Amino acid sequence: MHDDVILKISNVSKSFGPVRALRGVDFELRRGEIHALAGENGAGKSTLMNIIDGILQPDGGEILWEGQPVRIASPNAAQELGIGLVHQEIALCPDISVAENMFMAVTNRSRRFLMDVGSLKQRARAVLGQLCDIDPGAIVRDLPISHQQLVEIAKALTLDCKVLILDEPTAALTEREAQTLFGIMRRLSAQGISIIYISHRMVEIFDNCDRVSVFRDGQYITTAPISEITPSGVVNAMVGREIGTLYPPKQAADTRTEEVIFEVRNLTETTRFKDVSFALRRGEILGIAGLIGSGRSEIVKGICRLEGDVSGEVLLDGKPLQLRHYGDSIAAGLVYLSEDRKGDGLFLERSIAENVSALDLRHVSSAAGLIETDREIELARSLGAKLNLKYGRLSDPVSSLSGGNQQKVAIGKMLSVNPRLIFLDEPTRGVDVGAKSEIHRILRELASEGVGTVVISSELPELIGLCDRVLVVREGRIAGEVAGDRMTEENIMRLASGLEAAPQPTLNA
Amino acid sequence: MENSIELTAAAKQGSNPVKKFLRIRETGLILIILALFVAMSFASPYFLTWVNMRAMVMAFAVEGIVVVGMTILLISGGIDLSVGSVTALAMVIAGSLFLAGVDPWLASLVAIAACTGIGAFMGFFVTRIGLHHFIVSLAVMVIARGACLLFTGGRPLGLFSLPPEFKFIGQGSIGPVPLVIIVFLVVVLCFDFMLRRSTAFRKVFYTGSNEKAAAYSGIRTKRVIFLTTTLCSALCGIAGIIYMARFGSAQPTFGLGMELNVIAAAVIGGASLNGGSGTIFGAILGAALLSVVSSSLALLDVSVYWQDIIRGSILLTAVSIDHYLNKKRDAGGKA
Amino acid sequence: MENSIELTAAAKQGSNPVKKFLRIRETGLILIILALFVAMSFASPYFLTWVNMRAMVMAFAVEGIVVVGMTILLISGGIDLSVGSVTALAMVIAGSLFLAGVDPWLASLVAIAACTGIGAFMGFFVTRIGLHHFIVSLAVMVIARGACLLFTGGRPLGLFSLPPEFKFIGQGSIGPVPLVIIVFLVVVLCFDFMLRRSTAFRKVFYTGSNEKAAAYSGIRTKRVIFLTTTLCSALCGIAGIIYMARFGSAQPTFGLGMELNVIAAAVIGGASLNGGSGTIFGAILGAALLSVVSSSLALLDVSVYWQDIIRGSILLTAVSIDHYLNKKRDAGGKA
Amino acid sequence: SPATAQEGLHCASGETYIMNVMVSGHPYWVPVYQGFKQAAEAFGCTTVFSGTPDYDITKQIASFEQDMVKQPAGILVHPMQSDPFIEPINRAISDGTQVVTFAADSPKSNRSAYITSDNLAEAKFAAEEIVKQIGETGQYAVLENPGQSNHDLRVTALIDYMQQHYPGMELVGRQATNQDSTAAYRATASILQANPELGAIWIPEAGSAEGAVAAILEAKSDVLVMHADITPATLEHIKAGNIHMALNPNQGMQGFMGFMATFMAAHSEVFDPFNDYRTSGYNPVQIPFIDNGFAVITKDNADSFDLNTYMQGRDPA
Ligand SMILES: Nc1ncnc2c1ncn2[C@@H]1O[C@H](COP(=O)(O)OP(=O)(O)OP(=O)(O)O)[C@@H](O)[C@H]1O
Ligand SMILES: Nc1ncnc2c1ncn2[C@@H]1O[C@H](COP(=O)(O)OP(=O)(O)OP(=O)(O)O)[C@@H](O)[C@H]1O
Ligand SMILES: [Mg+2]
Ligand SMILES: [Mg+2]
């Protein structure tokens, strides 16, 4: 055994009813290393982390902490050992301020009778300052999901821990915040803190981690130093087969047309965005980029009349649409996939099948308005198969799925109707590489069938790899547009942060 | 593929009718009620008689209609404390109009319309003003009770002179089965079926489960909540009219404390106070359980001073057992 | 809004005292109550008298202690329907023991301990068995009421012979101020302060706001819920003893319907039925509003047949105005 | 200031008498207040109906104290509980407001009179009537409302009386229904099931009687029903022969005598009794107990007991 091993898992198993989430896995974490964990959705990564943090108890196996066998009975016990966990699903108290949320664990262990409100805020500001600019006095409920994710990370940084676990922390972050986070991670590891880093983004793993362990179907596959393995090697170990090219081919030059299927003119909302105009041509996938809080989501939600007091024109196939609420949008064929799958996207306590059919029940009901359960199940089954969804039974609640699989249900819900235009806000958030390329393939197919496809993503490589054209949003306005060769991370970042005069848009309405 | 194998396995399990029965959420309640029945038929020779059964069902049939409304409202995420007073108000309005010379059928329609209006009024405050169901329905509970007092001067109305064909609603029988029970069963079966199968009612589940996600699925959630609130009050109106026909009177103080009984029935039957889950069938079983316990205590002539203690304890025990069985079933179904 | 830290922050930002006041969550309620006071002092010359003020405060002071317990329980995500019967049970236990020759102070301690035990019993069913507060406390409400009947045979206990120093708790005054009001204020101020500032009570907010998140931070949420449930019943016990000292009797039917009143006060004062938010100060203002409205209607000799209608309407209007003001304030704070 | 003996007994202008009750919307108070008002009108006095709509002792005391603030000449009060009212009643009297209790008493207070129905007499009458109708041996049942003292008394007194005088009468059912007709329906249906030989049922109030009759009619049983108080529906049942008889306390007399006692206490200067009351500081008009009597309602006289008919053209306030 390596001297420097701080945490060792051996032969740990965990089942949820019929689902065997972990089957005798081993794992080893060294002092001061950044150790990546990779695996398909539902491979058992989060389950193992929950076991390490004392939230779940293993069915069998052993945990060694600094060489000693331990039983981690609760998150409290984990904290006492020095283990901190950033959850994949945001776990904050919505009614409480950011500062108090960050120091919940500290407050819990405090022996003091009174809260020291002043110092709490000061310390919160100091920690938050490393990441972004969030008011520590703000109520969490009022923050957008990406800011909540940052608070969640800041919360873990307040713990005085020896092992820090980050479960897909960058899923909702843009490049800039992600880079800040990597900086912090490296500093911590230099201080001797061990970090377990879970991500589906190979680039992040290979840029920042020392070693990588791969899981598949609840089983431990391998561990290797980053220098001794390639991204395709990792993917291979994860999936158990070769995955071809990551992104589907772009729109072929010969199918390109100037036919505009969808157009937005002078869309304005009282506070959040102004004078947004753009057009979408048949067959192309349009990307929207921007920094956190730039207003990308707001614009698209405004188009669909999901929120905000919006004015301006929206045209589909050249005809202006009269949309009053989202129901009208759906009827017109415009659908929106939310970035916050837990809050807006899914009915966590309802079954998978019921979730998939929720967008338009007419697809699974008879003329009399009666739901035909067989059709509903069949719909969920076929979409599940298409998206490689991993589940026990279609009647199980969505809450029993792994994060990435929940995202697949949310996407399946969008695909269950036959949309004319589909807006996807962070569609592959938390989705594994295999499924991700499958989703990309499906989107490309939809686009070439003439379905308008607009993708918002904080992952620039995804936008660049998938889209034919990318709009960049800054402070509620369209700052510019890139396509073809100009579609590089650097150009997008410049436009997004307003560093340089925008290149001339190639097409604008 | 693994998934499909898992699924077919589950499907195969289900072919055994006993196992299928054990997987239904209401099984626990049914077993508890059955156990009570068995115990009671040993304890009293009168228990398992047709007349006693009929009386026991009659004792909760009309309230059962209100339970249906409350369950649907709970599923949508709401709650209604005004059911007792609104039911009384229906009696009072219809009764007063009848005494003032209005045709009883017309008077009943007016009363039901008025209750529906009250429901719409509450729905307005909840969906447009943004208040919580609890506080709105509490205020309306007080207001409706006040209206009962105002219309009657606090005095019960004697409605003995209601025409026989009207009284038939509450007192008549078709064959051996009282009409009240038939109406009750029809209401229950209809709504149970619709709640399970119709797209309209499925939206109620979505709305109660996660209102925002429902809105993001294009469901006009405020409208859904408005309608479930209105429906509940409308069903109270119908219940009030049936009570009136049955008792031949309208008491302004009728239904005091009914709300807790009705909510308890729905919750025992599996409805969640946080919305998103519940069944009519379960709620009616809950109402039946409460009623059977009360009837049994009366049949056994248990001392009044002990009855409440026993009743409360049985309730707590039954709910605990049911909870335990469900937990076990959920775990077992997966194992 | 529910948050102390917000409050302090708001307080610090707003160097202007008017703006500061307008940013407090309770401002709407305070303004509404003030408006009622102004209107009433024009409407009745008796309103602004010391005797009337004292009578109005006395009418809700003891119940106010229960409101404190309920608010804390609501913040932690629970609810308690048994408060009325548990309060009555405290009176009945202490009264029966006293009549059986036990020292009244000891008898009171026993009664409070018994109520605390009941709270712990409910807490056990909620946290260990996993039942919902609503159904557990409903069952306990019935059981405790039954116990009151059993201990007294349904007859009120006359406790005129309680020693004067004991009666002083409920009937004495310090200077012109009744001791009851002083006790009430002390309880309110203590708990209000602790709920805003003490580390222990902040955990109640965390637990109620998101139990899972709190648990992930190492908070033993079940214990928190167990304790808030127990505390609420213990405060009912204390309230029962004060009532007993005040009235010199123990009534087995005391406190019927108290639960709705108490919950309404907390909710009017900003407590959420979903947990995570609420303040003692707001809840007491809610109780005061309800009490002032009732007292005013009585003082103005409004016809009984109109009183409920007016009372309900004022409640609904007040809550709507408060909601509107809060929404406006929240929007203003962000803009 | 009160009139002197020479001027005759009548009120000075603005002299006000208040009737204070709990659950003020209850119809029981309506004829009581009519009696109170009719007497007051005869003496040129102003009356106010006050109290709390709730079943809540704290609220009733608050309303009583608010009545006191207005310094009325007298208050006729139905104290929801006896002991809690001792202090407020005594305070009112020492502040110059005379207090008389009715229907429920606060015997340890200084109230000058107490008007009530004799619940024991009602119970005794009911017991004798039951025996007269079904004989000295048989089964009977009662519904009750534990916690409300007058209802309690009507039931327990009847049971005691039966035990003492008619040991052949067997009590086979005793159920709490708390004035709720649905609960009464359920309880009666069960009692009927368990006791096919049941001869009679005694119900201490009318709300439960409505539910009980519904159950008896449905079971096609011929149990003798007797109850206290009256509602229009039970009145109709009496006329139809479904209910044998109701005993109704003489509410009008209760209010009438209640006013008289309060008024006389406020005008006690006309009276100088042969005792020590005046020198010892008591109000000379001390009446420990006035029985307002009760009416027996049967098929024959039922028409006189329709409250809605009685109230036609009268102001309830
Ligand atoms: N509470 C639960 N009940 C039932 N099944 C569960 C539960 N939690 C997790 N599972 C199952 O356990 C398996 C592993 O889930 P886990 O969340 O660990 O996956 P993961 O590797 O973190 O995936 P992702 O990349 O999607 O986050 C999945 O099949 C999931 O459905
Ligand atoms: N619920 C809310 N309350 C207040 N402000 C909000 C809310 N939601 C969003 N905002 C603000 O609106 C602006 C645009 O947010 P939006 O979510 O559209 O950003 P985005 O570009 O999609 O970024 P991301 O989704 O990565 O956070 C931001 O300034 C954000 O802080
Ligand atoms: Mg995961
Ligand atoms: Mg966004």
TrEMBL record, chain A:
Pfam families: ABC_tran (PF00005). It is found in: Cell membrane. Gene3D superfamilies: P-loop containing nucleotide triphosphate hydrolases. GO terms for cellular component: plasma membrane. It is a peripheral membrane protein. InterPro entries: AAA+_ATPase (IPR003593), ABC_carbohydrate_import_ATPase (IPR050107), ABC_transporter-like_ATP-bd (IPR003439), ABC_transporter-like_CS (IPR017871), P-loop_NTPase (IPR027417). Keywords: ATP-binding, Cell membrane, Membrane, Nucleotide-binding, Repeat, Sugar transport, Translocase, Transport. This is D-xylose ABC transporter ATP-binding protein. The lineage of its organism: Bacteria, Pseudomonadati, Pseudomonadota, Alphaproteobacteria, Rhodobacterales.
TrEMBL record, chains B, C:
Its main location: membrane. The chain crosses the membrane at residues 29-49, 55-74, 81-99, 105-127, 134-154, 174-195, 224-247, 280-299. It is found in: Cell membrane. Signal peptide: none annotated. Keywords: Cell inner membrane, Cell membrane, Membrane, Transmembrane, Transmembrane helix, Transport. InterPro entries: ABC_transp_permease. GO terms for molecular function: transmembrane transporter activity. One of its GO terms (cellular component) is plasma membrane. It is a multi-pass membrane protein. The complex is composed of two ATP-binding proteins (LsrA), two transmembrane proteins (LsrC and LsrD) and a solute-binding protein (LsrB). Part of the ABC transporter complex LsrABCD involved in autoinducer 2 (AI-2) import. Probably responsible for the translocation of the substrate across the membrane. This is Autoinducer 2 import system permease protein LsrD. It comes from Alloyangia mangrovi. The lineage of its organism: Bacteria, Pseudomonadati, Pseudomonadota, Alphaproteobacteria, Rhodobacterales.
